[in-house]
């Protein structure tokens, strides 16, 4: 439930439109490519998660195998995965709630308060354009509400998540049942209007796969909760691989239903060129009356499909399901991010004040509040496609490091007990590393540049603070495994 709750969300409810703009109906192949890379990465994750059932995900695994510096780099990159992904899902939720308000209630929400600005690069400096939107108010609201829920306690959060997962799966099942019978093969042609790689960075089937990888992000949230899982050596691998398999089947059927029912052809720029989703040229193309009902222009893709094929009430119901269910993805992303911050602080790499537990709620409320505010700011100012691509850059780096770590550990400690062993490790782990690097290379240029810039900023923090305060470097503590449920010991004063 935790894995499915973290995976199924904005990727399929919202990014279906962005993937269509990049690949057309060929986005179905994009789902297969991204799912294949994710599957081999999941096998690598499963071996390490079962061996080291502690919070921290890829950060902890890298710490145990490659040392503190590389672990810091991975943990810092995971901020791009979890926090930025939570912001992206918040924007996706905003699209569905605004569609429900406008279609179901007939209320016209102010455009300038329903989306952030569009962004264009001026050299190396991103410049905002506020003509289409200033700030995304609904996205801010949902990010802060979910943060408040997490501060109250993970038990309550897990119960809410279980209900929302069921709503989400039921909504997608209804969508599949309604759309598959009305598929028209003509809507699937041309199948790949932008080709395999596209004319520009991030376009085509492979570019869409790099973006739609976001649809699978979240399966590793299972491993971040390993400390709080019964029998993690058995259950974490089952949760990782099982949730991935179930979600892949859903994604392919939903993508086929959406593209086959109303078409999924990209809109073109003023000169007839392919344009990136979320770019100023894309916004201008979607403002044309001829593109009013285009799938690629919808902020609530699945509900939009149902309305176009003559089921407005069911479309509104699906919008309501998304309204209720997408917060579960935000919840799991912020949850995973706070636990990674918590473990990094426990190891001394971040201020230990972040690990402070609330006396009543028993949750790390300071780091949770900090994360939630950062997520709300990102959701307020950036479009969902750009946030998803930035999130993917951090995620693919973390998955790459895990793929390398599992190989190194097989060589360094071949006889260590492995409750779950990755099959064909010398085939699957290199495939995972290569696949992650390949997808990263096919992200849009600005999304690729975020990772090294963000990483450089992180290294500056590490050498100014973490390197001097690290428990491992000061000989105070090893990587937490046996004492994972205990608070950090008091640090003696430095004479």
Total of helices: 18
- Terminal-residue CA separation: 50 Å
Average pLDDT taken over every residue: 83
CATH architecture type: Up-down Bundle
Based on CA atoms alone, the radius of gyration comes out at: 22 Å
| CATH topology label | Amino acid/polyamine transporter I
Query: Which of globular, elongated, flat, extended, rod-shaped describes the shape?
Result: globular
Overall number of domains:
1
Strand order within the widest sheet?
1-2
Helix/strand/pairing category: mainly alpha
Largest beta-sheet details: 2 strands, antiparallel
Poorly predicted spans: 479-495
- How much beta, percentage-wise? under 5%
Annotated CATH homologous superfamily = Amino acid/polyamine transporter I
Main location: membrane
Subcellular location: Membrane
Organism: Brevundimonas mediterranea
Protein name: Putative amino acid permease YhdG
Explain the overall architecture.
Helix content is 63%, strand content 2%. Helix 7 (137-152) crosses helix 14 (312-346) and helix 7 runs antiparallel to helix 15 (365-381). Mean pLDDT is 83; it is low at 479-495. It has helices at residues 2-7, 10-13, 15-23, 27-51, 58-66, 68-104, 137-152, 154-179, 204-212, 221-224, 232-262, 280-286, 301-308, 312-346, 365-381, 384-412, 425-441, 445-469; strands at residues 118-122, 125-129. 56% of the residues are buried. Strand 1 and strand 2 (125-129) form a beta hairpin. The protein is mostly helical and 495 residues long. It has a single domain, classed as Amino acid/polyamine transporter I (Up-down Bundle), CATH 1.20.1740.10. A two-stranded antiparallel sheet has the order 1-2. It has 18 helices and two strands.
């Amino acid at each position: 439930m935790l894995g499915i709750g973290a995976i199924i969300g904005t990727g399929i409810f919202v990014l279906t439109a962005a993937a269509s703009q990049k690949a057309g109906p060929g986005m179905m192949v994009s789902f297969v490519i991204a799912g294949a890379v994710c599957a081999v990465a999941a096998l690598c994750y499963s071996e390490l998660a079962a061996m080291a059932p502690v919070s921290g995900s890829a950060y902890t695994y890298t710490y145990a195998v490659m040392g503190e510096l590389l672990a810091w780099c991975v943990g810092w990159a995971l901020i791009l995965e979890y926090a930025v992904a939570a912001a992206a899902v918040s924007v996706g939720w905003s699209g569905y709630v605004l569609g429900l308000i406008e279609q179901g209630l007939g209320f016209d929400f102010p455009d300038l308060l329903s989306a952030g600005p569009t962004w264009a690069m001026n050299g190396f400096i991103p410049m905002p354009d506020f003509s289409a939107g200033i700030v995304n108010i609904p996205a801010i609201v949902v990010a802060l509400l979910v943060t408040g829920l997490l501060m109250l306690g993970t038990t309550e959060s897990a119960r809410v998540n279980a209900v929302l997962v069921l709503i989400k799966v039921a909504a997608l099942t209804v969508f599949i049942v309604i759309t598959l019978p009305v598929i028209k093969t003509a809507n699937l042609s041309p199948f790949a209007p932008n080709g395999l790689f596209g004319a520009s960075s991030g376009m085509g089937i492979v570019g869409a796969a790099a973006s739609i990888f976001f649809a699978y992000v979240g399966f590793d949230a299972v491993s971040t909760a390993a400390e709080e899982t019964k029998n993690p050596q058995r259950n974490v691998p089952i949760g990782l691989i099982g949730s991935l398999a179930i979600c892949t089947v859903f994604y392919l059927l939903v993508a086929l239903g959406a593209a086959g029912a109303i078409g999924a052809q990209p809109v073109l720029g003023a000169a007839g060129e392919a344009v990136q989703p979320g770019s100023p040229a894309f916004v201008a193309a979607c403002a044309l009356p001829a593109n009013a009902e285009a799938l690629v222009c919808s902020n609530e893709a699945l509900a939009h499909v149902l309305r176009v094929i003559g089921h407005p009430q069911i479309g509104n119901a699906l919008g309501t399901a998304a309204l209720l269910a997408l917060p579960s993805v935000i919840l799991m992303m912020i949850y995973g991010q706070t636990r990674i911050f918590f473990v990094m602080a426990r190891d001394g790499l971040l201020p230990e004040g972040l690990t402070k537990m609330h006396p009543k709620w028993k949750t790390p409320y300071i780091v949770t509040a900090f994360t939630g505010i950062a997520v709300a700011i990102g959701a307020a100012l950036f479009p969902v496609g750009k946030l998803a691509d930035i999130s993917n850059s951090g995620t693919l780096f973390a998955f790459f490091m895990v793929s390398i770590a599992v190989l190194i550990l097989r060589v360094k400690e071949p006889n260590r007990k492995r409750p779950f062993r990755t099959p064909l490790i010398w085939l699957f782990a290199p495939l995972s590393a290569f696949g992650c690097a390949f997808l990263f290379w096919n992200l849009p240029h600005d999304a690729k540049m975020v990772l090294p810039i963000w990483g450089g900023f992180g290294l500056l923090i590490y050498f100014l603070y973490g390197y001097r305060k690290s428990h491992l470097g000061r000989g105070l503590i090893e990587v937490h495994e046996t004492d994972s449920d205990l608070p950090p010991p008091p640090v003696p004063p430095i004479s």
